[in-house]
Each structure stands twice: as C-alpha cells, then as structure tokens.
C-alpha cells in the first residue's frame, strides 16, 4: 500500500491580546490567557520585586545574568497581579503551596483557580481556569539541530511525520514547534513531565494518554514591539490544552 501523502497544515490562528475590563474578573467555565512582556524598564522590575515573597526574591538573585533575573521578577509579579484580579486580594498577599510534584496552588486566599504558565524569550503566557486539566506552552521559532531525532523520539506520530516531510527550514521549524508545544501543553495539563507523558502515550496509546484533549495551537501576537521593529513579533507558536468549553478570552498585562 502506498504511503499516504502528508498534506500541508493550515496556518495557525492568531491570538490577539486586549486590555482587560476594569474591576474583578471571573473566568467562569472558560479559559483566560494573559500575555506579558518580560523585558521591562528598571523601575517596573523593582516595583515587581516588591510584590514577591522572600523565596521568589532569593530565586531571582540566583540567576547569573541580570536580564534573566529581571525577567523572572516580571514573570512572577505578573502572575501575582493577574491572580489578584480574580481573588480580590493584593498581589503581595498571595501565598502558594506545592505538594509533591503537583503544580503550586493558591492557599491564601483559597480559591478554585488553576493556572499554567510558560515563557519564551521576551514573552510569557498565563492561562487560568476553574479546574484542571489545563496546560499552556509557548516557544520562539528557532533552529534545533537535533530536530529530527527529537521529533522521532518524543512527538506524536503525525507531528513527527510533518517534521520529516518538511522540505525547507522554515516549514520544518514550524512543524517541529507545533508538535513540541502540543506535547508540552498536554504534559502540563495532565500533571506530568514530557518524559512521563511520552511513556504513558507509548503504553496506552495517544487518545487514552491524552484524555481526549486536543490542544488549541495558535500564534500569539505579543503586546509589544521590539526595538528596531514596527510591529509585534510573529516568531512564536503556542498551544493551550484544556477541556473547558466556555469562552476563551485573551488579555494583556500592561506594565
């Protein structure tokens, strides 16, 4: 039987982020996705640092590169600021707890919220919902020298086939990161690392291992313009894994 030809995949939908409405927010039975620009002015970084607890500030201080430490501060302060909009508390007053390998939970104030966060270079995405499963991932398109080996070993069969069938570097790069963000989002949604998820998929089959979740792949349009450019960068791909059936909203957090 002849091999079935690999059809070209449609372009990914673009997710554009708008300013949130004023006042408290309620995610309801949907999912809210927030975009955060991680490269911020020094005064914004210091204002964010003031929102963190001692453990977060200690983690920020351990980064060797100041730029990476500053991005960590902005990312953690953004998470606190976003969550505060849903629970009616000051960002600095939030307290988190991690039990075992599970993702951290908000314990003060207690709230029926779950979240997943990811970042790539100068962009962070935060997804919020009322319950699991929930996972998000974002990657900046770039060269991956071992893409063929990684795709064959870790990606789902159709994603690996798309990488192998690519005839130019641009198409190959996009196919690889479509598959990788899909894998990462699913592994986060199902509370397991990539390796554990691949093992589960191999043993149980993809549909069983993935709980019937089909991630939504998209191109995030970041809420910033890089120096020397005139429009938001288009070199990211992202995936959102959830079984929520309510509205999907996209907000931007302004510094």
CATH topology-level fold name: Ribosomal Protein L22, Chain A
Please give the domain count. Answer: 1
The percent range for strand residues is 15-25%
Write down the secondary-structure element order.
EEHHHEEEEEHHHHHEEE
Gyration radius, rounded: 19 Å
**Helix count, DSSP H or I runs of 4 or more residues:** 8
Just name the CATH architecture: Alpha-Beta Complex
Number of E-type strands: 10
Largest sheet: 4 strands, mixed
Low-confidence spans:
1-5
Going across the biggest sheet, name each strand in turn: 1-8-9-7
CATH top level is Alpha Beta
| Outline | globular
Protein architecture, described:
- This protein has one domain: Ribosomal Protein L22, Chain A (Alpha-Beta Complex).
- It is built from eight helices and ten strands.
- Strands 1-8-9-7 form a four-stranded mixed β-sheet, with helices on one face. Strands 5-6-2-10 form a four-stranded mixed β-sheet, covered by helices on one side. The chain has a two-stranded antiparallel sheet with strand order 3-4.
- The N and C termini lie far apart (58 Å).
- It has 255 residues and is of the alpha+beta class.
What key attributes describe this structure?
255 residues; alpha+beta; Ribosomal Protein L22, Chain A; 4-stranded mixed sheet; globular
């Amino acid at each position: 039987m002849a091999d079935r030809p690999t059809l070209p995949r449609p372009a990914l939908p673009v997710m554009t982020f708008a300013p949130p409405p004023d006042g408290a927010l309620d995610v309801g039975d949907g999912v809210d996705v927030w975009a955060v620009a991680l490269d911020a002015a020094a005064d914004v970084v210091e204002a964010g640092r003031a929102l963190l607890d001692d453990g977060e500030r200690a983690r920020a201080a351990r980064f060797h590169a100041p730029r990476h430490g500053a991005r960590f501060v902005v990312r953690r302060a953004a998470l606190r600021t976003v969550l505060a909009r849903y629970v009616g508390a000051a960002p600095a007053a939030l307290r988190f707890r991690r039990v075992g390998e599970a993702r951290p939970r908000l314990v003060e104030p207690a709230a029926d919220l779950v979240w997943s966060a990811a970042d790539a270079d100068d962009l962070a995405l935060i997804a919020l919902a009322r319950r699991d499963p929930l996972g998000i991932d974002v990657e900046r398109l770039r060269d991956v020298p071992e893409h063929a080996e990684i795709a064959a070993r870790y990606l789902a069969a159709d994603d690996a086939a798309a990488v192998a069938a690519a005839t130019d570097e641009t198409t190959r790069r996009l196919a690889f990161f479509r598959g990788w963000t899909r894998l990462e989002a699913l592994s986060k949604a199902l509370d397991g690392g990539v390796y554990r998820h691949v093992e589960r998929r191999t043993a149980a089959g993809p549909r069983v291992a993935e709980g019937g979740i089909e991630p939504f792949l998209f191109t995030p349009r970041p809420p910033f313009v890089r120096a020397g450019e005139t429009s938001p960068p288009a070199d990211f791909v992202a995936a959102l894994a959830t079984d929520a059936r309510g509205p999907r909203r996209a907000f931007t957090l302004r510094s």
